[in-house]
Design brief:
Layout (H helix, E strand, L loop, with lengths): L11 H14 L13 E5 L11 H19 L3 E5 L1 E2 L3 H13 L5 H4 L1 H25 L10 E2 L3 H16 L3 E11 L4 E3 L4 E18 L5 E10 L10 E4 L13 E3 L6 E6 L11 E4 L5 H9 L26 H14 L3 E14 L7 E10 L2 H12 L4 E3 L2 H11 L4 E2 L1 E2 L10 E3 L5 E2 L21 E3 L3 E2 L1 H5 L2 H4 L8 H6 L2 E7 L3 H16 L4 E7 L2 E2 L16 H8 L1 H10 L7 E2 L2 H28 L16 H22 L3 H29 L5 H16 L4 H11 L28 H23 L8 E7 L9 H9 L1 E7 L10 E5 L3 E6 H4 L2 H27 L1 H6 L2 H28 L1
The structure holds zinc ion (2 copies).
Length: 897
C-alpha cells in the first residue's frame, strides 16, 4: 500500500519555495475590489528598514496571514497590504554606526551624501524584508508594497501637515522637550524610557540679599538633584502656603558660585513636601520650571548645549561635560561653605529609547501638533464602539492616555525623514507654508515682504507622523481612489500592544481628521514574545530565536503554528525548541495521515461519493461520530477566529486532528479497510479534506502540499479551484451534529482506553492478544461495530460481552471499573504466569536489597550528623519510593499465587 506520489516524510524545504511561487504566479495574493464580495482589509504594520525581521515580525506576519487566509477562503475580497517604514531616528542611527566603522560621521559626508547612503541602506533592507516575509509564507499583495518615503505617502504627509497647519493644529513654539545629546534631536514624550536611578539630593544654601543688594548672613536652602543646572537658575519659588518662607517672597537671593542676584517668588505649583519646600527655577532645563517661568515672565537660560556640554551661560564651567560640571559645582559650593547636606535620593530619569543616553530636558523651539481637538473624536470613536479593541482591557488604557494627552512634538533634528514643509524668510523672518490647494508646491515668495530668499526648515518629521497616516495613505489618499472607497476603513489593525500610543492612537486621530472615518473596525493587540521561562528575548540573554533559522531547522509551518498557538490576546507568548519540535511533529502527522488516505484511495481506484446528510441514518456510528465532531470543530474554530483567539483555535484543531481523526477514526477505519469495506473511504477523505482546509491558514505549506495529493481523488465539488489556499472554507452543516453517536463512541473509546491502561499497568507485550470480559451498564446502546473496534484497537481476543458485573470472573483477573462498564482481564491471558512469577520475584529481591541499603544509611548516626540537610532529605525520599515499589511488587506477586 505504498503511495508513489507522497514520500514518507514531509520535507518543508522541498515544498515551501515552489508552493509560494505557485501561489504568487497564480495571482492569489492580489487584493481586488469586487462588489459581489465583502472587503476584508489588513494594512501590515510596516517593519523598520533598519535591519532584517525578528521573531516579533514573524508573530505579526503569522497572525495576520492566518486571518487573511481564513477570510479569503470564506469568500471575502481579502487585501493584505505590505509596507516598510523609513524609521527616521532608528535608521539614521544604524547608518551612522555603519559610517563610524569607516571612521566617518554624517557631517563628514554632508546632508546630501549622507542621505544617499541611507537610501542605499533602505533599498537593501526593503529587499531583504520582502524576501524574509516570503519565507514566512505571507499572502500579502506584493504589487502594492509601499515604503513610507515613496511618492504617494510623501504626498499624504505633506497634505496632512499643510492642512493641520492652516487649521491651526500645528504650531511652532518654545517648549521644554526631551533632548538626546547623542542623537542630537528632540524626542516626543513617548520616546522617553523612564528608569529608576539612585541619585542624590544636594541641599545648597543660597545667601539672602538685603534691600540694598548686600549679602546677609542668612540664606535659604534649596534641594536639587541636578546641581549642574544651578548656573541657569533665574529665581527661587516657594509655595505661598508654607509659612516659614512667606516673609521671603519679594526679596532676592544670590546664586552660589555664579553670584547673580535672583528674585524669590511665590507659586502654587511648588510642592511644599519636596526638599525644603523652596524650589530653584531653571526654565531652560525643566518642564515645571518652564511653566512657572512663563507665569512670572522669567528668562529661559540654556546652560547645557545640544551636545551635552556646558554653554557660555555656565560661566567658569563652559565647555565641561554636564556630568563633570555637576561634580565641579558641588566641589566649589562645598569650598564656599554653601553645602548644607547630601541625601541619597531614588528617582526616575528619562533615557533615549533608541540609544539609552540620559536625556536632557531642554527649552527649545520645535513643531507641535495640538492634539486635544484631534483626540476628542478619537475618544468618541472607541467609546461608541465604532472601533473595537481586543483584548478589552486596553480600552481603558487607551482612553486614559487620550484623555490626558499632551501636545505632540513632531520635529526631529535629523536628516533622514520627511522634511518639514515650512520655509523662513531670510529678509523678514516670516514663516511660509504651501497652500492647502497646492500642498506639493513649495512657496516661492515671502507672504509678508515678498522676498524670494526663502529657506526650508532643516528638520524632519517624527516617523510616527507618517505612520499615523498609513491606513489611508497606502490606499491612495489624498486622492479619492476606488481602492480607498472599497478597502477603507481596514477591517483589522493587528499589532503589538507596546505601540498602542505611538501608533494606534495616532492612526485613529489622523484617520478621522483626514478622512472623517475611523481607519479600522477592530484593533487586535498581541503580546511580546518570551522564551519558555517567560524571559523577554534579548541579545544579552542569548535566548533570541531567529525566525529564519527556525524555518531552516523546523519548517515554516512549525514556526507559524508555535507562534500562533503560543499567545493569548494581548498576553505575552512563549516559544522554545520544544514547541517548535511539536509544530514540526504536527506537520508530519498531517502529511502521514494524508499519505495513508491517499494510498487507500489509489488502491480503491473507483471514484468515491461525498457523505450526504440524507444517508446519515444508514451510516456506521463511527462515521456519524467523526462527522459530528468535525461539525463541532468547524463551528468552534469559526467562533474563535472571529474573536481573535488564534491560540485556542489552533490548539482545538490540533486536538481534533491528532486525537480524534488520527488516533481514533483512522485506526478504526483501518479495521474496516482490512475487512475490505471501502465504504469508510468517503468519510475518511471528506474529513481529511475539511481538516486540511481548516488548518490551512495556520500551516499553509504542508496543508497545500498534502491537499494537492488528495485533490485528484476527491469527488468534484464544483467550488474548488486549483489550490487549497483559494478553496472554499468548510461551511457549518448542523445536520451532521449527532449527540447519540458521540455518546456511543465515547463509551466504546472508554472501554478501549480501559483495556489499554490495564495492559500498560501490567507491562503486557504490545503484540499479545488478551482475553477480556466486559460488562456494560447500557448494553442496548452498544453499537454493532463496537466489539470489532475493541478487539482490534485494544488487541482483545476473545472478547466476552456479559450482561452485568455479577457475570464477570472474580478470581485471577485484573479489573477496571469505568463510568459505563466493567472490565476483567484474566491474568493468565496477560503473560506466562510462571515466567512472570519468576520475574516479579527477582524484582522483589532487588527492591528489598535497596530498602536494606537505604535504611542502613539513614540509620547511621554519623551520616545523619554530617550530611547536608538536602542530602538526608533526598535519601529519605528515595527510601519512601523504594518502600512503595516493594509493596506494589509484593501485591502483584500475591495476585499470581
Ligand atoms: Zn539617543
Ligand atoms: Zn519676508
Amino acid at each position: 500500500m505504498q503511495n508513489k506520489g507522497m514520500p514518507k516524510a514531509y520535507a518543508p524545504s522541498e515544498h515551501e519555495g515552489p508552493l509560494y511561487q505557485f501561489w504568487l504566479e497564480k495571482g492569489f495574493f492580489r487584493g481586488q475590489a469586487d462588489p459581489q464580495k465583502h472587503p476584508f482589509t489588513i494594512i501590515m504594520p510596516p517593519p523598520n528598514v533598519t535591519g532584517g525581521l525578528h521573531l516579533g515580525h514573524a508573530l505579526t506576519a503569522t497572525i495576520e496571514d492566518t486571518l487573511i487566509r481564513w477570510r479569503r477562503m470564506k469568500g471575502d475580497a481579502a487585501l493584505w497590504l505590505p509596507g516598510v517604514d523609513h524609521a527616521g531616528i532608528a535608521t539614521q542611527n544604524v547608518v551612522e554606526r555603519d559610517l563610524a566603522t569607516e571612521g566617518l560621521t554624517r557631517h563628514d559626508l554632508g546632508r546630501e551624501k549622507f542621505l544617499e547612503r541611507v537610501w542605499e541602506w533602505a533599498r537593501t533592507y526593503r529587499g531583504v524584508i520582502g524576501q524574509q516575509h516570503r519565507r514566512l509564507g505571507v499572502s500579502c499583495d506584493w504589487e502594492r508594497e509601499l515604503f513610507t518615503m515613496d511618492p504617494g505617502p510623501q504626498r499624504a504627509v505633506r497634505t496632512t501637515f499643510v492642512n493641520l497647519y492652516h487649521d491651526g493644529l500645528i504650531y511652532r513654539g518654545e517648549r521644554i522637550i526631551n533632548w538626546c545629546p547623542r542623537c542630537q534631536t528632540a524626542l516626543s514624550d513617548l520616546e522617553v524610557e523612564h528608569k529608576e536611578h539612585n541619585g542624590h539630593l544636594w541641599y545648597v544654601r543660597y545667601p539672602l540679599l538685603d534691600d540694598s543688594g548686600r549679602q546677609t548672613a542668612d540664606h535659604i536652602v534649596i534641594a536639587t538633584t541636578r546641581p549642574e543646572t544651578i548656573v541657569a537658575d533665574v529665581a527661587i519659588a516657594v509655595n505661598p502656603k508654607v509659612r516659614r518662607w512667606k516673609g521671603l517672597v519679594g526679596q532676592r537671593a544670590l546664586l552660589p558660585v555664579i553670584e547673580r542676584p535672583i528674585p524669590i517668588i511665590a507659586d502654587d505649583a511648588v510642592d511644599p513636601k519636596f526638599g525644603t519646600g523652596a524650589l530653584k527655577i531653571t526654565p531652560g532645563h525643566d518642564p515645571l520650571d518652564f511653566e512657572i517661568g512663563e507665569r512670572h515672565a522669567l528668562a529661559a537660560l540654556i546652560a547645557i548645549g545640544p551636545d551635552g556640554r556646558m554653554t557660555a551661560e555656565a560661566g567658569p564651567y563652559e565647555g565641561l561635560d554636564r556630568f563633570q560640571c555637576a561634580e565641579a559645582i558641588i566641589r566649589d559650593i562645598e569650598a564656599r561653605g554653601l553645602l548644607e547636606k547630601i541625601e541619597p535620593h531614588r528617582h526616575s530619569v528619562g533615557h533615549c529609547q533608541r540609544c539609552n543616553t540620559l536625556l536632557e530636558p531642554l527649552a527649545s523651539k520645535q513643531w507641535f501638533v495640538r492634539t486635544q481637538p484631534l483626540a476628542d473624536p478619537a475618544i468618541e470613536a472607541v467609546k461608541e464602539g465604532r472601533i473595537k479593541i481586543t483584548p478589552r482591557r486596553f480600552v481603558r488604557v487607551y482612553l486614559h492616555w487620550m484623555e490626558n494627552i499632551r501636545d505632540w512634538c513632531i520635529s526631529r533634528q535629523l536628516w533622514w525623514g520627511h522634511r518639514i514643509p515650512v520655509w523662513y524668510c531670510g529678509s523678514c523672518g516670516a514663516e511660509a507654508a504651501p497652500s492647502p490647494e497646492e500642498p506639493m508646491r513649495d512657496p516661492q515668495v515671502c507672504p509678508r515682504c515678498g522676498s524670494r530668499a526663502l529657506a526650508q526648515d532643516e528638520d524632519v518629521l517624527d516617523t510616527w507622523f507618517s505612520s499615523a497616516l498609513w491606513p489611508h495613505s497606502t490606499l491612495g489618499w489624498p486622492e479619492d481612489t476606488a481602492d480607498l472607497r472599497y478597502f477603507y476603513p481596514a477591517s483589522v489593525m493587528e499589532t503589538g500592544y507596546d505601540i498602542l500610543f505611538f501608533w494606534v492612537a495616532r492612526m485613529i486621530m489622523m484617520g478621522l481628521y483626514n478622512t472623517g472615518q475611523s481607519p479600522f473596525e477592530h484593533v487586535y493587540l498581541h503580546g511580546l514574545i518570551r522564551d519558555h521561562h517567560g524571559h523577554k528575548m534579548t541579545k544579552s540573554l542569548g535566548n533570541v530565536v531567529d525566525p529564519l533559522a527556525a524555518i531552516d531547522k523546523y519548517g515554516c509551518d512549525a514556526l507559524r503554528f508555535s507562534l500562533a498557538t503560543g499567545a493569548a490576546p494581548g498576553n505575552d507568548s512563549r516559544i522554545s525548541d520544544e514547541r517548535l519540535e511539536a509544530g514540526r511533529n504536527f506537520a508530519n502527522k498531517i502529511w502521514n495521515a494524508t499519505r495513508f488516505v491517499v494510498a487507500n484511495l489509489e488502491q480503491h481506484g473507483a471514484a468515491i461519493a461525498p457523505p450526504r446528510p440524507a444517508d446519515q441514518k444508514q451510516m456506521a456510528v463511527m462515521d456519524r461520530w467523526i462527522m459530528s465532531r468535525l461539525e463541532r470543530a468547524t463551528a468552534q474554530l469559526e467562533r474563535r477566529l472571529s474573536g481573535f483567539q488564534l491560540t485556542e483555535g489552533g490548539k482545538g484543531l490540533h486536538e481534533f486532528f491528532w486525537r480524534e481523526y488520527c488516533d481514533w477514526y483512522l485506526e478504526m477505519a483501518k479495521v474496516r479497510l482490512r475487512g475490505d469495506d471501502p465504504s469508510v473511504l468517503s468519510v475518511l477523505a471528506h474529513v481529511l479534506d475539511s481538516a486540511l482546509r481548516l488548518l490551512h491558514p495556520f500551516m499553509p505549506f504542508v496543508t497545500e502540499a498534502a491537499w494537492q495529493s488528495l485533490r485528484p481523488h476527491l469527488p468534484a465539488s464544483g467550488g474548488d479551484g486549483e489550490a487549497l489556499m483559494v478553496a472554499p472554507w468548510p461551511r457549518p452543516e448542523r445536520r451532521w451534529l449527532d449527540s447519540q453517536a458521540e455518546i456511543q463512541m465515547e463509551g466504546v473509546m472508554d472501554v478501549v482506553r480501559g483495556v489499554r491502561n490495564l495492559r500498560v499497568e501490567r507491562e503486557v507485550q504490545a503484540s499479545l492478544w488478551v482475553e477480556t470480559y466486559i460488562a456494560l451498564d447500557g448494553a442496548a446502546d452498544w453499537p454493532p461495530e463496537a466489539p470489532l473496534i475493541v478487539e482490534e484497537l485494544a488487541r482483545v481476543r476473545p472478547l466476552h460481552l456479559v450482561a452485568n458485573g455479577s457475570a464477570l470472573p472474580k478470581k485471577g483477573v485484573a479489573t477496571a471499573v469505568l463510568a459505563g462498564a466493567r472490565i476483567a482481564v484474566p491474568l493468565s491471558g496477560l503473560f506466562d504466569v510462571s515466567a512472570e512469577r519468576t520475574r516479579l520475584g527477582g524484582q522483589v529481591e532487588q527492591a528489598e536489597a535497596e530498602v536494606r541499603t537505604l535504611s542502613a544509611r539513614l540509620g547511621n548516626k554519623q551520616f545523619r550528623e554530617k550530611a547536608r540537610a538536602e542530602v538526608v532529605e533526598r535519601e529519605e525520599a528515595r527510601m519512601a519510593t523504594a518502600r512503595g515499589r516493594l509493596e506494589g511488587l509484593r501485591e502483584r506477586l500475591a495476585e499470581l499465587s
